[in-house]
Amino acid sequence: MRSLFIMNPQATTTTSRTREVILGALTEELDVTAVETAYRNHARELARGAAAEGYELVLSLGGDGTVNEVVNGLLSTPEGLTRPGYAVIPGGSANVFIRSLGVPGDPVDATGAVLKAIKADRWRDIGLGRITSDQDDRYFTFCAGFGWDADVVHQVELEREVGRKATPALYAEAAAKLFFQGDLRDPSLSVATHGGSLDDAYFALVTNTTPWTYAGAFPLQPTPDSRFELGLDAFALTKPSHPLGDVAVVQDMHTGWVLSQMFLPKGLPARGDGYATWHDQPSLRISSTHPRAFQIDGEYLGEREEVNFQSVPKALRIFC
After folding, report:
1. Is the predicted pLDDT of residue 128 greater than 90, yes or no?
2. Over 147-201, what HEC string results?
3. Residue 257: in which H helix or E strand, if any?
4. What does the alpha-carbon distance between residue 36 and residue 48 come to, in Å, rounded to a whole number?
5. Cα dist from 83 to 37, 55, 67, 139, 293, whole Å
6. CA nearest neighbour of 186 among 148, 149, 158, 224
């Protein structure tokens, strides 16, 4: 099988030696051409051109950002060409999408698992999310966020620019810093679905699977019933019904409680005070009264005032 192996040399949890071992294992089983990415969206360009180059399979080594680029490249395969299959090997700090598929978190172990799936012709057709706005037309694999989590992603990207690694500890540090600065006290968001709308939300997520993210080894599940085989799920943080005392203090305490419930083994209950969830939605829209931070798959896209979301069933064939 002619295969294109796209490697991110900046992948957080791999070394040049690890990449050599993985490439050696792939070369024993596949006809592999390996390419290292050199700039942002390079993986997207490589994946988009894979079909025209005659590749039947694309593999990637990197984190969720690399996966997102490859997926968007594959989904833009020119008409008339057969889209290659896809297989993922983890190399980032979180690897949310990869872990959601059940692929081992260790890159060498994951390589073995992926090769077994390819040899057995074992694959899944999974659904994706699609965003459209005045500035966007892109796919996401596991989540999109408006507000606080996007601010966290942005803060981590700024820290990486000055040489810090995107470790779980750095994400936790940024999340705590922004939480205590009051970044979850801006009720500017509205969520509109086919069943109605909700206003005055502080923070909103759209998910394509569970979990939303990981705190180290621990999954956070605001939408525990979200699945690749279903439509989109969503979560919005709102005001508690009966705030008592200082509004800001009460809101912070309530937000902390809601976030803590996401660590439960079964995830956040579908109904509760101070938040709302939606399940298996074909489409929805999130808007804000002023520009707010926005991210998809852990990549900060800038500020947006309105984004439309659509579920795209069976969008991608993946070996796992």
Report:
1. yes
2. CHHHHHHHHHHHHHHCCCCCCHHHHHHHHHHHHHCCCCCCCCEEEEECCEEEEEE
3. helix 247-261
4. 15
5. 21, 9, 16, 16, 33
6. 148
For tokens 């990549």, the residue is 299
Contact 133, 308 (CB under 8 A): yes
The separation between CA 294 and the C-alpha centre of its own chain, rounded to angstroms, equals 12
The rounded Cα 247 to chain-centroid distance in angstroms is: 32
Rounded distance between C-alpha atoms, residue 59 and residue 66, angstroms: 11
Q: Say what percent of the chain tops pLDDT 90.
A: 79
Q: Coil, strand or helix: which one is 107? A: helix
Report pTM: 0.92
Has residue 10 got a pLDDT over 90? no
- pLDDT of 244: 55
The CB-side HSE value for 47 (13 A sphere, CA atoms) comes to 29
SS3 label, residue 112: helix
Report which DSSP code applies to 219: E
32-41, 224-233, 238-247, 304-313: least confidently modelled range: 238-247
Tell me how many degrees the CA angle 62-230-193 measures, rounded to the nearest 5.
105
